[in-house]
Structure formats: structure tokens, C-alpha cells
Write a structure and sequence with these properties.
6-stranded mixed sheet, 19 strands, 5-stranded mixed sheet, 32% strand
Length: 392
């Protein structure tokens, strides 16, 4: 906690490492990351009644009734090369598995009713391994063989081989994809998946995916061996990341001196007076996350692929794989800077360093400045979602 306190009072948030050194070719967590559109309009997307899904709304159409999925006829092609690489998301370099040289992997986007097509090339060597990709939360009723679970729906994709997934985006909202082979997603093989659909709450700006993930300096295969050992408990994670970024205390003996201080935090921008959609994803291997934004209230609009009756809260709890979409109104001054925080639950998770930080800057704020905002208190007793962070 002493290290986090020092970080909260740092003179500035200038990163010591480049984005390429920490996250490869990914732009997530940078101020150059693009906001998302309400829907995609390329590839001759049909727009009956002005939307790819026509007159369907969150109130008049149940997306879980397959026959009501809009027939867009559009195929969204993606091409993924999966390979090993060395990056330092928190300043500690380690071997990871990247998608197109990125951690987190590229964002998949589609409209509700589109067909997503992903050609995957397995270039994992040193050592070589099979792989597969799972598309979290999609039911795959018509295409169970593309669900991505080795030895259940498919054989692993062999090294130097390719495989094409093709499935319908029959639900809409926020999700992610990840390896379902061994513990590869704890080694970096994951990315966000956004399926645009009807809004059940109006907002101005879609900030896009915010991935929250516990992080291990140990190689994922060694984690598997530790977990599978007789009488073993869950190993403790070493850090906690927001969009693949966080700093680490390089004085820790575990780094062996191979660590760069102030590697760099994720940064976001708020527009004064505007409402922002944040797509929260717990992409971790073990930890329950508690997400807050200093001095701001969140309105929950969806959980997983389910629009919900909107309600306000100060903290969002996410278990592994869960997603929550929230709306945040930028009520601060144009010069404000505030902390975005996500904590691995102390009562529900094993973590050596559970606190993740990112900075939110208003339009006139100095984007190298350290926010001076105060953390939102919450209740960490219950390992689950409770409104306002308080037990019922």
C-alpha cells in the first residue's frame, strides 16, 4: 500500500516506457485510442429505419429469441496472427502471447445480426503450442463447433496451422475473446469484442472497452503446474492492470532488478457535461474486481449481454469474465483530473498488489499531471454485486 500511496502523490504521470514496450501495437489505454461509434456503417450495411437492427429496441425485442436477430447479411472479417513476444505491461518484462503484436488484442466490432469471421494463424513457438479462441457470452446455437473449447468443440489449432471461425453476432453489448487452451489467456491471449445494438440508455460518447485484469509475472504454464499440485491453493497475482497497464514497485525482490519504474498508466479523456459509456470487462484469471471513479457516480445500463433497468452506484463488482456497461456524466470542471480505480477484492482474491489506477482528464487538464482526487469508499465484505457497494 505504501507504493500505491507514493504513486498517488507522484509529481507527474509521465511514462518511462513507450507504448510499444508495454503493450506492443495496442493503443488501448492511450489518449489516442478512438471512441466507438453507435454502430458500423461500412461494408454496405443496411440501415432500415436508420439502424442496422431496424425498429428493434431493447424494450420491444428479446435478443435471446434467435428468430428476432436482425438479418444484416454483413460479414465482418478479421485476421489474427497469434505469436509470442516480450513486453512489460507494468515495467517487468516477460514473455507473453500476442494477437497481431498487441496486448490486449485487437478490438472486434460488429453490429447485432452481423456474421463475425476470424481467421486465426497459430505462430506460437519457443516452445510451440496449440491454441483456440472462445467468444465469451455468445451462445453459438447454430455454430457450436466454433465455440473454441479444445477437445469439446474442436481440436486445438496446431502450430503453423490456420483455422477460420465464423459465427453470428446474435446478441449485443460488451464482451471479449480469449484463448481456451491451457492458461494462455493469463499469458496475454485476449481482447475485447463489441457488438453494437440498441441503446437502452442515451449517452454522448462511447469510450470503448476497459479491461480489468489481475496480472502474473510467472509464466502461465508454471501457474498451471502450481494450481494442479497436490493440496495447492490459488497462487497470488503480482499486479492489477487497466487496459493492460499499471506501474510496479521495482524495489520488490521478485523482480530481480529487471524492472522499469513508472512504466505508464492508462489514460482517458472526459468531455465536460457529456455522458460517457464505459464497457467494463473483468478479463482476469482469478480476481474479483471493485471498480470506482473518484467523485463520480455510475449508472449501470447492462450486465453481460443483458440490458437492465438503469440504476446508480458508486462501485461495480465484476467476477471473472463478467462485463458491466456504465454511463458516467462528466460533472467536473474542464481542468479536472481524477483517478479511475479497480481493486482486487481483499476478501475474495489472492493478490500481492491488488490496486489498479488510471487517470481521467477533462479537456483543459494537463495530461501529465497526477490526479489529486479521493477514493470512493465501498463495502468489500460480500463477493458479489450490491447496489451502491452496500449489503442489502
Amino acid at each position: 500500500m505504501a507504493y500505491i500511496t507514493s504513486l498517488l502523490h507522484a509529481l507527474n504521470l509521465t511514462a518511462s516506457l513507450t507504448q510499444t514496450a508495454t503493450n506492443g501495437l495496442s493503443t488501448l489505454g492511450t489518449l489516442t485510442a478512438q471512441s466507438l461509434p453507435d454502430f458500423l456503417t461500412d461494408l454496405n450495411t443496411p440501415l432500415p429505419d436508420g439502424f442496422p437492427w431496424g425498429s428493434r429496441t431493447a424494450n420491444n425485442t428479446d435478443p435471446y429469441i434467435e428468430s428476432l436477430t436482425p438479418p444484416t447479411g454483413v460479414i465482418r472479417p478479421y485476421d489474427f496472427t497469434i505469436s509470442r513476444g516480450t513486453i512489460a505491461p507494468d515495467g517487468v518484462p516477460r514473455s507473453v502471447i500476442l494477437v497481431n503484436g498487441q496486448f490486449p488484442g485487437p478490438t472486434i466490432e460488429a453490429n447485432w445480426g452481423d456474421t463475425i469471421q476470424v481467421q486465426v494463424h497459430n505462430q506460437i513457438y519457443g516452445p510451440e503450442e496449440g491454441t483456440s479462441l472462445h467468444w465469451h457470452g455468445l451462445l453459438q446455437k447454430a455454430t457450436p463447433w466454433f465455440d473454441g473449447v479444445p477437445a469439446v468443440q474442436q481440436c486445438p489449432i496446431a502450430p503453423n496451422a490456420s483455422f477460420t471461425y465464423q459465427f453470428r453476432a446474435d446478441l449485443y453489448g460488451t464482451s471479449w475473446y480469449h484463448s481456451h487452451y491451457s492458461a494462455q489467456y493469463a499469458g496475454g491471449l485476449l481482447g475485447p469484442m463489441i457488438i453494437h445494438g440498441p441503446k437502452n440508455v442515451p449517452y454522448d460518447i462511447d469510450l470503448g472497452p476497459i479491461l480489468l485484469s489481475d496480472y502474473y509475472h510467472t509464466e502461465y504454464f508454471d501457474i498451471v503446474k502450481e494450481v494442479m499440485a497436490p493440496y495447492a491453493g490459488p497462487p497470488s497475482s503480482d499486479n492489477n492492470l487497466i487496459n493492460g497497464k499499471m506501474n510496479f514497485d521495482c524495489s520488490e525482490p521478485s523482480t530481480g532488478g529487471n524492472c522499469t519504474s513508472n512504466a505508464g498508466l492508462s489514460k482517458f479523456r472526459f468531455q465536460t457535461g457529456k455522458t460517457h459509456r464505459l464497457r467494463l470487462i473483468n478479463a482476469g484469471a482469478d480476481g474479483i474486481q471493485r471498480f470506482t471513479i473518484d467523485n463520480h457516480t455510475m449508472t449501470v445500463m447492462a450486465n453481460d449481454f443483458v440490458p437492465v433497468e438503469p440504476y446508480e452506484t458508486n462501485v461495480v463488482t465484476l467476477g471473472i469474465g463478467q462485463r458491466t456497461d456504465v454511463i458516467v456524466k462528466a460533472t467536473g470542471k474542464s481542468t479536472d483530473a481524477v483517478w479511475m480505480r479497480s481493486d482486487l477484492s481483499a476478501n475474495c482474491t489472492f493478490a500481492n498488489q491488488p490496486h489498479a489506477l488510471a487517470a481521467i482528464y477533462y479537456p483543459s487538464a494537463n495530461t501529465s499531471s497526477t490526479p489529486m482526487s479521493t477514493a470512493t469508499p465501498y463495502n468489500d465484505v460480500i463477493c458479489g454485486n450490491v447496489r451502491g457497494g452496500r449489503p442489502p
